[in-house]
Each structure stands twice: as C-alpha cells, then as structure tokens.
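Annotators were shown the component list below and the corresponding predicted structure, then asked to write short factual statements about the assembly.
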Amino acid sequence: MSGQTANSYLKMLTLVFLAISLLIIAFNFISNPFKIYPDLNGFGPQRNADLFWYARLHKPYRVASLKPSHLIAGSSRAARLPPELLAGKGYNLALPGATLFEVRRNIEHAHAHQDLQQIVIMLDFEMFRAQSKTNLIGDDNRLRRIKPNTAEQLNYYLAMAEDHWRSLYSRGAIASSWKLITNQSNTQREFFADGTWRSKLAKRNMRDWMLRSKVREYAAYTHKDALDYSQFRQLLAFLQQQRIQTYLLIAPNHAGILHSMKFAGAWSNYLQWHQQLLAELKKYPSNNTSVTLFGLEHQAAWVMQAPKQQPAYFRDGLHMTPFAGRALMRCLAASPECEPKNRPQRLADNTIGQYLSQLEQNTRDYAVQQKEDSKRLRMMFNESYRKTSTSAPSAPK
Amino acid sequence: MLFNSIEFLFLFLPTTVLGFYLLQRGGSVWAVRWLVSASLFFYAWWHPPLLLLLLGSATFNYLIARLLEKHRHRLVLSVGVLANLLLLGTYKYATFIADNAAWLFGADIAAPDIVLPLAISFFTFQQIAYLVDVYRNYPAEKSAWRYLLFVSFFPQLIAGPIVHHTEMMPQFNHLTRALDAWLLAPAITLITLGLAKKVLLADTLLVVADPGFAMASQGLPLNGLEAITSATAYSLQLYFDFSGYCDIAMGCALLFGIRLPINFESPLKATSIIDFWHRWHITLSRFLRDYLYIPLGGNRHGTPRRFGNLLITMLLGGLWHGAAWNFVLWGGLHGVFLMLNHGWRHVSNARFANDPRLLVRLPSGVLTFVCVVSAFVYFRAPDVATANRLLQSIPDNMAWSLGDHYKKAVSESLNGDLLGLLTHGFGADLFIGGIMAGTLGTALLLPNSLSIISQTSADISTQPPRGQRSVIALRWRSNTLWAILIAGLMVAVCLSLSQVSPFLYFQF
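Structure shown to annotators:
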C-alpha cells in the first residue's frame, strides 16, 4: 500500500462517513420524532408522535421554546387539565409517574426560562410513598437551574449535547422517525402540543382494566405505605421562595377506589395524608403564602358517578377524562362557566373537617347505592388475597 | 473512559493523537511525556483518587527494579513480588477471603468495602514479570517516564494485552515519526472493526444471552433450547466483546506507531483446548506459562506433577478473572480439559493434533466448542447454582422452540431500538435465529480482523498473525469499496454510541 492510495482511502472514508451521517441527521431533524425541534411548516410528517415514553425528553425542550408563564404539573393524573384555561401562556408539564423531585426540578427549569406566574400542581398519593422513587427517572442535568454553579452549568450543556446526539444520530431516533413516517407507532395515546394527552383505548376495556388490577394495586397495597414529606417540603420552600402563585390540587379518586381503600384498611392513612398536607403548608407564614390547597372528593357528582353514566368524569377511577379536566380547570381559573358541582374546595383549618366528613359520607353512600360494584369489588378482593396470601382474611362483608 | 464512548472517540483520542504528533517533533522525550499524561488522564477519568494507586505501584516497582539491578538478591525480588501480590490481594480478593472465612468458621467477619481499581490485575502482572526479568539479568529501565508509559499506556491499560517489557521498551525509545497515511488507514480500519464487533455484535448478543441467565437465576423454568441459546449467545458475546476490545487497543496503539502483541486469534476456530489457549487471551496464557507454570516445574517432573501444575495454573488463572468461586470453577474445568487433551495426545501419539482433514477437524472443533461454551456458563452466571441450573435444564427439559417468556424478554429489551423494528417485523424467533447464525458464521467462517488487515505493508502487531486459511477469504485493500464499507460500519457504530455498555474484560 502506498502513501497515496492510503491517502485517497482516508479521504473517501471521511467523505462517505460525513455524507451518510448528514443524511441521517437531516432525516431525524425533519421527522423530529421527539418533537424537540421546531416544526418545519408542513415539511416532514404531520402525525402526532407518541411522546408518552419520551415525555421527559420532549417536555423540557418544549418548555424552553414555548416559555410559558402558567404551568400545570403532576403525574399522568394531571395530563387532562387543559392549560389554555389559565390566565396566561400555559403548558401542561405532566409526566407519567412523576415524582415530587421531578415536579420541583421541572418547575425550576421552566422558571429559569421564563418567570412563572401561576402553577397548578396535582398531588398524587403515589408521589408521597416513601418507597417510591424520589430521584429523577430521566436526566436531571437537562433541566436548567436558577442559580447553577459551574459544574451544574457544564452538566446542563453536556446533557443538552447528549440529547441532541440521541435525537439526531442514534438507532433509537431512526427507529422512532421510521415509525412516525410509516405510522407504525401503534400508540395507545394521543399527545397534544399543549402537553396534554389522552387514551385512545375503548372505554369498556379501560373499565375492566381498572377493576381487575389498578384498584387492587392502589387501594390494597399502596395506600397503606409509609409516607415521606421531605421532597414536598423542598417543593413548598421553592414555591414560596420564588413567590409563584400555586394551586395544589389533590388528585380526585372515584368512590370505587376510595371504597377499596377502606376494604384494604388504608382509609385512616389516606385521611391523615390530607391533614399532613395542610400541616406542611401551615409551616409558612400566612402573609407570605401564595400556595393554596384544594380537594374535590367532597363532590358527590364526581366521586359517586355510576359506572355507565355519561359524560364520564373518570376514565379508570384515577385518571380523569378530558371532559372532567376541562370542567375542573374552568373552576380553578374562576371562569363564569364553572358549575358548582365541579368546584374544588379550598382546604384550610376551618374547612378540612367538613371536607373529610363529606368524603367519608360519599364513600359510605357509594357502598350502599352501588351494591353491584361493591359485590364485584368484594369478590375481586377475595380473589386477590387468595392469590397473594395464604393467611390474609377475606374482605369484610 | 470507555473505548466505545463519545468522549473517547471524538475528544480524547483525536486530541491525544494530535498532541503526540505535534510534540514528537521536539523529540521522543516529549512524545513519551505527552502519552504518559494522556494515559494518566484516561485512567483518572474513571475515579481520580485511584490514580495515586497506579502511580504508587509504578514508582515502587521502578525503584525495586533499580535496586534489583544493583543487588541481584532473591530477597529484593521476593519483597517486590509479594508487595504486588499483597496490593492485588487487598483490592481484589479481600472481600472474597473475608466472605469465605466467615462461611468456613461461622464467624461474623465484616467484608471490607473496597472499590476494585480498574486494570489492577493487568498492571500488577506486567510489573511482576518485569521484576522477575530484571532479576534474571534484563537491564532495568533508566527513564522513569518510559517506565510509567510501559505501565500506563492507555490502549492496553484497562484490559490488556498484558504487554511484556521486551516488546514495548524498545518501541518507546524510538517514538519519533511523521503522521503517515499508510499507518493511519489500517489503524482506523482496525478501530472501526473492533467497535463494530463490540457495539453491533456483542451488545446485541447480550440481549439474547441475558434472559436465560436471568430466568435460571430467579429459579424460573427454562427449556433446553433456551439454555443452549443463552450459553452460546454469551460465549459469542464475550468473544466479540474481547476481540473488539483487542482490535481497538491495537488500532489505537498503531496511531502512535506502536505495535501491541496479538492477544486474540479466532479462538472459536480452535480444534482442541490446547489450541484454544493458544488463541484466547494469548498474553495471559504467556504470563501464566512463563511466570507460574514453568517456575512450578512445568512438565519437567513427570506426568502427575505436570498435570498438577497445569491444574494449579488454570485454577489461579480462573481466580485472576474474578474473586468468586464460579471463576475458580471455570479455571478448574479448563485445567481438567487441558489434562484430558494432553492425555489424549499422549495416548494417540499426537496423531490428530495438526491433522488438516475436515473429518478430524470438524468433530474435534465441535467438541472443543461445546467444552468452551459449557465452561463459559460458570464464567457468566452470578453463582455456581445458577450455572448448574442452566446446564441441567438442557438434558432435563429439552424443547425445540423458545418459550414466550424468553422471546418477550428479548423483544422488550429492543423496544425503541432500530433492532426492535426487526423483531417486530420478523418475529423474535427469526431475529434470535438470525443473530445467532450470523454471529456464529462470522466467528467461524470469516478470517479475523488481524488477518484481514495484516496483508498490508504496515506491520500491525509485534508478531505476524498465523494467517490461517478461512472458509471465506477477505482481504482489506485501501480502495473505494473498502472505504465505503468501513465508513458504513463507522456510521452504524456512531449511531449506537448513545447506548454505551462497558467491555466485559474491564471487570477483571
């Protein structure tokens, strides 16, 4: 091999490598499978990408480009709250299975791009479970900080570089682009530009799914767990420090779920959680507070809705329908279209007692009114206990 | 820093090469210093405090070697070797010893919480060999920088080859050369082939191999075909992982005009276990032979003693790979295989040892392959019980199709990946079959990358490869077709860099 042929070989190799690489980068940029780049006005696939699994990558970039002043945050249970009903430029930052740490860091990220004026955070019991993850599931470094030190700033840029590499020049990006273009996503959800998403599965399947697994899991097991408030305290401290007007909304459950908590012996834990949330909030001086707590489970129209009644508030007893999300947001935004049956109750020292008794009453009434559902629940619990334990007693009659 | 990471390939390596060629104009001294600095940075990237350990070990051995040169006394050598073994024992085997002592005496001995320093087994062995040779009259290196480069040269620092000072020191004395395209071309090609083996083949095989071991470890029922698939896939994964690493190491060294010894030469083509150990981790075999087997007496004291020495050497070789009983068992199995192999050669007067006929080579090749793959089950399994369970399921529960649980595990691992589209399109059965057939074919029918590339005018290793004939002939040329092929592989490799997995031999 002469030096000349080796030279030509290296030149050709470099040229081909760059050409193929550029083609791949252009392909992924145009398809934009994770929607972290601006849309090219009708150029490229116009289909909705299934961003559910990539929400932690997509949403921080969407926030950075949109710069919203009003936010909705929380887990998937906040995903049906439409942000356009807020008083300013809004975005729904709900993340599937979000932890309180993630909620705080994502709010900080948004606040670092644009001063936030108002936030609605949907609090989910799951977020407080001591055994549930308190660390970020995605890459924390991609979220901007308000006052970063040099290392944090460097990590932020490195994380961004990595995200762009993964979005433009990776096997995963090509696979996602290809699925998007050929419509192979097989997505079960529809994801919207305002950050909300909804299920595309048939309602009947959803209800069966709820009664067979979710109720059992949530009521019988998770609501009995010990709780950890440290991340919540950090979130409150941050919100107070930044003086962002915040509505904390306890994610409502259908009475079917509440009823099953009772079956499982988790009821006192659930009520105590409400009291503790208020107690944590009271640690801040009242003249300085811009954070308020709301609950909705006192509304019989919501929690006691019969299984086949339309329009439905719940998709599966935990997640709201888009109809319910809109109805609730109208009331939170103090719209004249707010109906009293959808109005959440502000929880304070003088209201919490009455709120919890109404919640208790609703759950009791549900058991009486929905005998069929109670019967089914009892059967399911007995079946569940048989499967999971040899010594556990059967569900109470 | 991993060879298959973005920071290594696009920042560290180009900067080091560029700095080397700029500085070496000022003379070999500057080139050596630059390479030492880069190598120390490379090592420190993982866990900076452990750099002190590497530097401490190198300084100690450098001083002992100088002392040995002046006072060729057995005591000095013993102190040097024992100190090295003590260091290795403390960091690598303290937990293992404490755990076993606790089990043996039923005492509550707390296992020390020690981080295993990267590459400690490699640089310790290199330095023990160096001390022994200085004691045997090899001149000690005068320059501390050159000695440090011998210990820390980054292409071979983390997972070998275990270089010998006689093949490296002379090269470090003449490090001045211009940046030549005829050296750069094979070096880049070799690095690309190595990376392709690692990120395209080994990392894909990992997905196929893991479910079987996970199921056996959790006590889930496993059928015979799943066990065979997992065991074979893991053997191929380790093969391409280590082979890929060796190619990258040799390619990187070649960028500086340095040749490393061949460490890996198509071991799955071996037709006997003796042949296998002449092809697998060649530099470790060489070390164990020269500094353990021969000093133990080698084959000089009759057959029983020879077999005993062989078994001890292989048991310690197994333990070198990891402080766990499954590694010892793996080494022991190979020791027994070697004894049987030598015994058979003795009985048959070595009639079939180098028989080129397919009728002889094929059955002996298959038998060797089965022995190697079975032993690797102990190498991979988290414990001996898991390995036994996996192997036992082959005769106990033989089936001719993979179970749904296994296929689902493979498909789910590839979710969101380009390969996931293939499993989705063709089905998991066909995907797994295709991967297994493709990789096995590559390992058995194609020539290895050294044979493909070494046909050029540039020597790429300290000794020429065997140049063994392959079923499919393939020879690299610096032409357009090869440029397109290698560029395509390069793109495929770069696309996979966002899913970085460490090389398996890094843990040893």
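Statements collected:
1. Residues 378 and 387 of chain B are 5 Å apart (CA to CA).
2. DSSP finds 21 helices and no strands in chain B.
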